[in-house]
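Worked Example 4.2. Read the sequence first, then its C-alpha cells.
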Amino acid sequence: MSSETSSAFIETSNVERKQDLTEDQEKEKPRLDEGIEPVSKRQMKKLIKQKQWEEQRELRKQKRKEKRKRKKLERQCQLESNSDGNDRKRVRRHVVHSTLRLIIDCSFDDLMVLKDIKKLHKQIQRCYAENRRALHPVQFYLTSHGGQLKKNMDENDKGWVNWKDIHIKPEHYSELIKKEDLIYLTSDSPNILKELDESKAYVIGGLVDHNHHKGFTYKQASDFGIHHAQLPLGSFVKMNSRKVLAVNHVFEIILGYLETRNWQEAFFTILPQRKGAIPTDKACESSSQDKQCAMVEDGSDSDSSEEEYSKNETESPHKDEQQDKENSTESTMQSAPH
C-alpha cells in the first residue's frame, strides 16, 4: 500500500472516530423533553427563599448573640435595682419545718376517668411545688399510690421519683399512721376546724369527681372510725359557688395558715377569683344578705347547717357552678373536731 493510500485511510478512520464520539456525547446529553420537568412558580419561590435563608444564616446567628447579651444585661440591672431575689434566698434559710402531717389519699383511683386522674396529677404537682417553697413546709404524704395515677405520672412526669421532702407510699394511710392521730378533711363533716394541731395527720381526699360521689370521703372517714372536720370557710368567707375546693387549694390554705395563723388571710390569698369570695362581715352589710345576717345575729350556725349549704348551692350562678365542677374534689373544707 502506498503512503498516500495509507494517509487517506488513517484520515478517514479519524473522521469516523470523531463522528462516533460526537454521536455518543449527544446521546448522553439529556433532552429537554425527556427526564427534565419545567420548574413551577411555587418551586421557584421555594428555591429563592431557601437561598435567602442560607445567605442570612450568619446574620441570624449574630442577632441571637446580641439578644442573649441584651437579656443578660437586663437581668443584671434587675438584680442590682431589685433585691427580691436575694431576699427570697435569705428567707429560705429561715424555713421552719412543721411537724404537721398532710396526706393526699389516692385510694379513689377506680372512681375516676383518665381525664380526672390527669387533673389530680396536676394538683399534686402544685401541692409539691408549694410545699417546697413554703416557709413552714408540712410532712407531705401520698398514700395508696398506684393504678392509673402512678401510670400517668410514670408516663408524663418521670422526675417524680426524685421528688424530695415527700413520702410516696403504696399503702393506705391507715396502715402508716395511728388512728387517733388522723383527721379526715371533708366538706360534709359537721365539725368546724378552729386551729391546726401540728401533732396530727390531716387527710385530703384525692378525688376529682365533679360531685358525682358526694359525701364519699365523709362516709369513708366514718367507716374507718377516724375523726373528720371541715375548714372554717363559712366563718370567714361568703362565696357565690359551692364550698368544695380542689385538692391543691386545701393544701395551700393549710400552708398559708401555718405561716400567718390567720384563716381569713389564708382563704383570700388562695381562693380563685371565680369563687366570688367576700368577707362575711361585708356580706352582712349588703342588703341582699340581710336575711342571712339576721340568722347569724339570732345565734343560728348557718355556715355549718345543711340548710345554708343547700341555699348556697341554689343561689350560685350556673356559670360558676360549671367552672367549679371542673376543678372540684370531694376532699375539702376541713375542720378539727373538739
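Now turn to a second chain, presented in exactly the same format:
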Amino acid sequence: MLLLAGLLRRARPPRRPSVRRLSGLLDRYGFVPPASLTPHSASDDGGAKKRRPKKPPYRPPSSLDRGGRPAARSDLPFDFRFSYTESSPGDKPIGLREPKYSPFGPGRLDRPWTGLCAPAVDTTLRDAHADDPAPAAERELEEARRRERERVLGEPLTPAERAFLVSKCQKSRTKKQINLGRDGLTHNMLNDIHNHWKNDEAVRVKCLGVPTVDMQNVCHQLEDKTGGLIIHRHGGQLILYRGRHYNPKKRPFIPLMLWKPAEPVYPRLIKTTIEGLTVEETKEMRKKGLYVPVLTKLAKNGYYASLVPMVRDAFLTDELVRIDSKGLPKSDYRKIGVKLRDLVPCIIVSFDKEQIIVWRGKDYNGTIQDNTQKTSVSVLEEESAGAESENGDQEQASSDWASDECSQLSSSDEMPDDKSAISEADSD
C-alpha cells in the first residue's frame, strides 16, 4: 500500500500555482475590455500617440503684473499726492518712514515717487539758488491747465440753470454723493468725481472732519485739481459742476494709488521750551492751560469751519485758549492744531489729556488777519445768491468763501469710514 501510494504521487502532474479569481463572469460571458482601458506604454505603438501636456495651475490676475506693458503716462499738469488738502508742499519733512515705494505699483507710472509725491516735472531741473525755483516747464503746465479749464467750463451758467442743477443734486432728489473725510481730497477721489460726471453734470460733495477747518483750501483744491466749478455751498455741502464742454470720453487719465503711502517724519510740534519763554514759564503755561475754561468741544467728524474765528475772538481777551477734543483720534486733533497754528496764527502749547491748548504769543495783534487766506481762483457769480433749491436752501455767493466761518459748530452725524486708513500727521 505504501509502495502504491508513492507511485501515484510520482505519476501525478505538478500542481500549478493557484490563481485567485474574484468572479467567474469574465469566463462565462467572454467580456473583452476596450483598448482604451488596456494598459500599454508609448513604446507599443511606436510613440505615435503622446500624452497631452498638463495645464498650468490657475493664477489669479494681479494688478501689479503689467504683462510686459509699458508704464502708464498721465498728462495731468500737477504733482500727484495722496492728499491735496492735508499735505502742504511748504512743510519739509526730516525723514521717511520707509523706502520710496511708489503707491501706484512697480512699473505702473512713468513718474518717480519721491516719498512725498510724484512730480509732473523732474525735480532735478529745479535750481534752489534761483529767484524762481520753479522751472519754465512748470509755468507752462500751469498756463495750459488754466486755458483748458476755461475752455471746458465755457460760458457762465444762468441763474435758472444754476438753480436747476442745485435742486437736482439735493438729498431729496438723489443719493449720489462723495464723502470728503479726515484725509481730505485724496488722489483716488479725483477718479470718483470724474466717474460721477459721466452721467451727471454736477455732483454733491459732503465735507466733514479735519479739512473743514480751512474750507477755503478745500474749495480751491477741488476746483484746481478737477477742473470743475463750485456752483453752490451750504456749510460742508458743495455742488461741483463739470462744465459745458466736458466730454466723458476725453476725460484725463488718473492712475489709481494701490495703497496709502507712509507718512513722512516731520519735526516735533511740541518743543521743550516755547520761543521767547524760559523752561519754568513754559511748564507753568502748560499747567495753566489745562484749567482754562473750554472754548468749545469738537464733535467727532463734525464741521469745524467756525473754529478759526472763534479762536481769534477769544484771543482778544484771553492769552490761552483750550479746545476739548476728547473722542477724536490722535492724528485728527494734531492736524487741527497745525491748521490753527497757520491760520490764526498762534503757538501750540500742549496736546495733553486730549486738549488743544494754544497761546496767542507776546506780540499778538487782533487786527492782523492771516495772510494765507486768499480769494479762490474761481468765484461764484453774485446773482447765484438768489437761486433757491426745492427744499428751501438758499444759494450763497462764492465771492465770500469766509462767510461760512461764523456758523456754529456742528455735532452732526459721523462720517462713513473711508477706505483709506488714517495717517499720523506728526510724530512726537
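Notes for the reader: Confidence is low (pLDDT under 50) at residues 369-428. The longest helix spans residues 136-153.
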